[in-house]
Structure formats: C-alpha cells, structure tokens
Amino acid sequence: MQTLANWDGSGPGPWVLLFPLFWAAAIAGVVTLLRRTRRGAGGPWAGPAGP
Question: CB within 8 A of 7, min separation 6: which ones?
Fold first, then answer.
C-alpha cells in the first residue's frame, strides 16, 4: 500500500482505477443482497412447498 500512497508521478495515480472498482463492488453487493432478500423463500425453481 505504500506504493499507492506515496506515488510521486504526474496525474491522479492508480487510485483513479481502484476507487471506482471499490464502488462497483459495493453497489453489486447491495444489489445482490436486495435481490436475495426480496426473493424470499426461493424462486420458481424451488418447487412446491409441501406434499
């Protein structure tokens, strides 16, 4: 992490690529969590609930 923190080159540096990836991962996690909780007891592939 020192390489990223002490980058002395011109321009925004490697964080310009990593920061959006962190946000994309966070948004994908939230969307996945919401889809799983909204689905409830399973999808149409779960089959009948009882005999």
Answer: 13, 14
Start-to-end Cα distance in the chain: 57
Structure token digits, residue 34? 């919401």
- pTM of the entire predicted model: 0.51
Helix ranges restricted to H, the chain: 2-5, 15-39
45 by DSSP, 3-state: which?
A: helix
CA distance 1 to 15: 11
Distance, in Å, from the CA atom of 13 to the CA atom of 10, rounded to the nearest integer, reads 7
Reported as a single tens digit per residue, the pLDDT across 10-35 is 667 777 888 889 999 999 999 999 88
Residue 16 tokens, joined: 């310009």
